[in-house]
């Protein structure tokens, strides 16, 4: 339970750090071109976390580093991290920061559906209800006004960004047990570098040094620290549940947009906000209610007298004579065996 609480704190901090991105990026986009802005955010993240690594390299020597087997997920993560912030910056250029912030909650829907369809994570009834409310709210925000069915291009680009990040979250989930510093530095430098190449191909020009530094500092906090905390949370909670706690970020971002940019509340925004709040509430209720007592994987060999397995963390029944990692054999009731097999099927 202690590990779970720590993971929840990481997820909430990740959301808070990321929330400042939308309103401050909107301000900087007045001086910084779209693709350059996306590049600087990720470069700031990679360089900042790289500096953090210099103070923790001794601890990281024991960490499990990325290998060739992780290459497909790593490449997918980097490519999607090139596309997503570019789409987001385009969305901010075409639309309001408050709308973009609130639409960020569609990332929960994208992450959850991809986790279900591709990676076979469990989606509960509460999470389906949450997805319904968040999707309706996202559709509502995607139109210009109550009297107009003109689709907002700003909203479209933001939704494309959240879809990219939803798939990227699931790619990152598959390598989240590896060195967090290595993952974030690779994300930052390669995704930022890729965006720089695209920016040059588009003919964009770098802004003055002070705006470069501002953008990179924002990237370190809003992307670097946020991604770092997010990955640490994913190790314990999984992709779908981490994105659930991350759902508070759009509300903080929208509030900061009203506060810093003076954006006005519209009727459509208020309706969408209420739907988002309901959807987010169901997500959080689902996450709190579905924490399972088992926090480890089992490797079970059936025998007629019992089962043999190795423990990695806690187990639901007491052991008085065996260490947590010591292999042993004992009898299980039919109910215990079925429960353990259910956990394997859904969590391994």
Describe the structure.
Helix 3 (34-54) crosses helix 11 (209-237). The protein has 348 residues and is mainly α. It has helices at residues 2-19, 21-28, 34-54, 57-60, 71-94, 97-103, 106-117, 125-141, 153-173, 180-201, 209-237, 239-245, 248-261, 267-289, 334-347; strands at 143-145, 148-151, 301-302, 307-309, 328-330. The longest helix has 29 residues, at 209-237. The strands form two sheets. It has a three-stranded antiparallel β-sheet, with no helix packed on it. The protein is globular and about 55 Å long. 45% of the residues are buried. A hairpin with a 4-residue loop joins strand 3 (301-302) and strand 4 (307-309). Residues 291-348 have low confidence and may be disordered.
Features:
disordered C terminus, three-stranded antiparallel sheet, globular, 348 residues, mainly alpha, two-stranded antiparallel ribbon, single chain
Class based on secondary structure composition and strand pairing? mainly alpha
Order of strands across the main sheet:
3-4-5
Beta-strand content estimate:
under 5%
**Terminal Cα separation, in Å?**
19 Å
What are the secondary-structure elements, in order, as H or E? HHHHHHHHEEHHHHHHEEEH
Q: Which shape, going by the Cα principal axes?
A: globular
Poorly predicted regions are 291-348
Q: Count of DSSP helices? A: 15
Q: How many strand segments? A: 5
Q: How does the major sheet shape up?
A: 3 strands, antiparallel
- The Cα radius of gyration reads 22 Å
What percent of residues adopt helix (DSSP H or I)? 55-70%
- Mean pLDDT comes to 77
């Amino acid at each position: 339970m202690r590990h779970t609480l720590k993971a929840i704190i990481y997820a909430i901090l990740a959301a808070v750090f990321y929330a400042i991105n939308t309103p401050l990026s909107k301000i900087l986009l007045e001086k910084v071109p779209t693709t350059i802005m996306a590049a600087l955010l990720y470069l700031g993240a990679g360089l900042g976390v790289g500096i953090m690594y210099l103070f923790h390299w001794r601890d990281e020597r024991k960490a499990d580093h990325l290998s060739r087997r992780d290459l497909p997920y790593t490449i997918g993560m980097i490519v999607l991290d090139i596309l997503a912030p570019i789409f987001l910056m385009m969305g901010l250029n075409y639309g309001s920061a408050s709308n973009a912030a609130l639409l960020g909650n569609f990332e929960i829907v994208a992450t959850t559906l991809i986790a279900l369809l591709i990676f076979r994570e469990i989606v509960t009834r509460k999470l389906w209800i949450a997805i319904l409310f968040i999707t309706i709210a996202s559709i509502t925000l995607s139109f210009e006004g109550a009297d107009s069915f003109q689709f907002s291009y700003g909203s479209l680009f933001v939704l494309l960004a959240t879809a990219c990040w939803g798939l990227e979250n699931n790619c990152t989930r598959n390598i989240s047990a590896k060195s967090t510093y290595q993952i974030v530095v690779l994300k930052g430098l390669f995704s930022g570098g890729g965006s720089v190449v695209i920016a040059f191909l588009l003919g964009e020009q770098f802004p003055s040094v002070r705006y470069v530094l501002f953008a990179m500092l924002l990237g370190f906090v809003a992307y670097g620290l946020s991604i770092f905390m997010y990955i640490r949370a994913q190790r314990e909670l999984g992709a779908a549940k981490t994105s659930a706690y991350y759902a508070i970020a759009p509300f903080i971002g929208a509030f900061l947009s009203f506060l810093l940019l003076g954006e006005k509340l519209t009727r459509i925004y208020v309706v969408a906000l209420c739907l988002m709040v309901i959807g987010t509430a169901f997500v959080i209720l689902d996450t709190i209610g579905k924490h399972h007592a088992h926090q480890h994987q089992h490797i079970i060999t059936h025998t007629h007298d019992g089962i043999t397995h190795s423990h990695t963390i806690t187990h639901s029944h007491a052991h008085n004579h065996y260490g947590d990692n010591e292999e042993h054999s004992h009898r299980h009731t039919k109910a215990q065996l079925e429960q353990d097999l259910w956990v394997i099927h859904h969590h391994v």
